[in-house]
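Ticket #4471: complex job returned nothing on first submit. Input attached below:
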Amino acid sequence: MNSADSPLAPTSVPARPPAAFRRLVWGAVGLGLWWFAYGQLGALARWLTYGVAGLSSASRLGSAVEFFIYEVPKVLMLLTLVVFGVGIIRSFFTPERTRRILSGRRESAGSVLAALLGVVTPFCSCSAVPLFIGFVTTGVPLGVTFSFLISAPMVNEVALVLLFGLFGWKVAAIYLGTGLAIVIVAGWVLGRLRLESQIEEWVYATKTGAAGVEEALTWADRIDRGAEAVRDIVGRVWPFVLLGIAVGAGIHGYVPENFMASIMGRGAWWSVPLAVLIGVPMYSNAAGIIPIVQALLGKGAALGTVLAFMMSVIALSLPEAIILRRVLKPRLIWAFFGIVALGIMFVGFLFNALL
Amino acid sequence: MKKLQILGSGCPKCQALAQNTEAAAKALGIPYKLEKVTEVSAIMGFGVLSTPALVVDGMVKSQGRLLTPDQIRPLLG
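Support reply: We reran it on our side without changes. The output follows.
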C-alpha cells in the first residue's frame, strides 16, 4: 500500500501533485523510455556482435549471436509491456463475472462470447476443474464452457506477443483469427453432440456456494494488478524465452536453407496431421516453442504446418487431459481433443493451400 | 483463534499462498490455525471458481491471486 494514496496524507503541502497524477506522469515517462530503448535494440545487437565481440558478419556464429542478442531483449520488452496492459484489462473481468455473463446463454451466441471472454478472463490451468464445475452447474451450456476452456490457453497474450515479435503482425492476426474460429466452432459442435451424460455424475451433485463479495478496485489497484501479472508471468516464462530463442538462433545460423522444405514444406501433405499428432502430447509453453518454430519457417517449412504444430502444442496437452479426466468421462475427452485437433488440421491445410 | 483456510488443488501457487499467509499471521502475532482445503467439492462449497483462494473465519477474502504477506495482513485484522 502506498501511503500517499491514503486520504490521511497531509494536504497542506501544496507542491506535491496528487498521487494519481504522479503515477500518470511516471507511466508516460516510462513508456517513452521503453519506446526509445526498443528502437535502439537492432543497432545495439549489431554493435555488440560485430564491434565488441569482433565476429564476422558473414559467419554462422555471427548471425546466430546477433539474432540472440536482438531477439531476447525485444521479446522480453514486448512481453513486459503487453502483460502489464493485459493485467490491467483482466482486473475488469473475474471468472465470477464471466460466469454470470455466460449462464443461460444460447449455444451459438454463447460460444462466441465465451471465446472472447476466455482471452480476457484471468485463468490458470490448475483452476480448470473448479471452473468447469462452477460453469456447468450454474446453467452455462457444455459447449459454451468448452469454448471458454479452449480459448484461454490457445489465445493467450504470451503467444500473441511472441508471434508479433518474431513473425510480424500478419501472422499474429492470422493466429488470433483462426484460433478464435476453432474455439467457437469446436464449442458449438461439442454442444450439438449432447454429451452431457459423459460428465462424471458427482459433478452435478456438487453444491456450489454463493460467490464471494466482489471487490471494488481503484485505478491504483488495477495498476498493481498489472505489475503483479508482470512479476508472475514474465518471471515464469523468461527462461523459456531464453532457451527457445537460443535454439532458434542455432537453427538460424547453422541449419541450411530449405532443410525443412521436404519434411515440413507445402509439398508434403502428411506433414500437417503429423505436426498435430506430435504437437498434442507435447507440453511446452508458447514462449519456448514459438522461437524454434519461427526459425524452422525460415528454413523452408510451410506456414500452415507451422501454425498447426504451434496450436496443437499450446492448446492441447496431456496434463490438461489428465486434469479434465476428473470431471469428464473418456469419451468426452476424446471428442474434445479430436474436434479441436481436426479444427487445427483444417487451419493447417487451409494456409498451406492459400499461401 | 483465527481459522485460515487455503483453497486449492495443491498447485505451486497454492503452496506459496499458504506460506505467505503463515508469514503474515506470524508477523501480526495472532493465534491461528491454518488448513489446506484440496477437495474440489469443499472448494466449490465456498463458491470459489479460481484458486488459490484465502478464507478467513469462513469468509472468502481473495481468490485467484497469489497475495504477498503485506497484502494478506490487512485481511487478517
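Chain B has a mean pLDDT of 89. Closing as resolved unless it happens again.
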